[in-house]
Amino acid sequence: MREVISIHLGQGGVQVGNQCWELYCLEHGIDPDGRMPSDLTPGEENDSFNTFFSETSSGKHVPRAIYADLEPSVCDEVRSGAYKELYHPEQIINGKED
């Protein structure tokens, strides 16, 4: 199986990427916390949507994505948004505010 990693850079990239992942979750029936109620085989990555999502052994789906911006406030929007539990903290990288 092939895997796709999305890299979202800068304010526009982070904001557009956040909206794209929200849409991907809605299209595949993935809840904002990364759970997929319709997944009959949690922990097994044998579905086509796993090209874009990594599935943990507990059945949580995590986007194969990295967010990076020098401005922390843009990344903080993702960290505090509706889909904040979807991402691993190491996926969101930002610079330090002066």
Secondary-structure blueprint of this entry?
Elements: E1 6-9, H1 10-28, E2 53-55, E3 61-63, E4 65-69, H2 72-80, E5 92-94
Parallel strand pairs: 1-4, 4-5
Antiparallel strand pairs: 2-3
Structural commentary:
By secondary structure, this protein is an alpha/beta fold. Helix content is 29%, strand content 18%. The protein contains two helices and five strands, in the order βαβββαβ. The protein has helices spanning 10-28, 72-80; strands at 6-9, 53-55, 61-63, 65-69, 92-94. The chain has a three-stranded parallel sheet with strand order 1-4-5. The chain has a two-stranded antiparallel ribbon with strand order 2-3. Strand 4 (65-69), helix 2 (72-80) and strand 5 (92-94) form a beta-alpha-beta unit. The protein is elongated and about 45 Å long.
Keywords:
98 residues, alpha/beta, two-stranded antiparallel ribbon, 2 helices
What do the pLDDT scores average to?
88
| Strand order, largest beta sheet | 1-4-5
**Assembly state of the chains shown:** single chain
Number of strands: 5
The DSSP helix count reads 2
Taking the alpha carbons of the first and last residues, their distance comes to 43 Å
Approximately how much beta-strand content do the residues carry? 15-25%
Tell me the radius of gyration. Answer: 14 Å
| Derived structural class | alpha/beta
Largest sheet: 3 strands, parallel
Form type? elongated
**Poorly predicted sequence stretches spanning 5 or more consecutive residues:** none
Task: Specify the helix fraction band.
Answer: 25-40%
The string of secondary-structure elements, in order, is: EHEEEHE
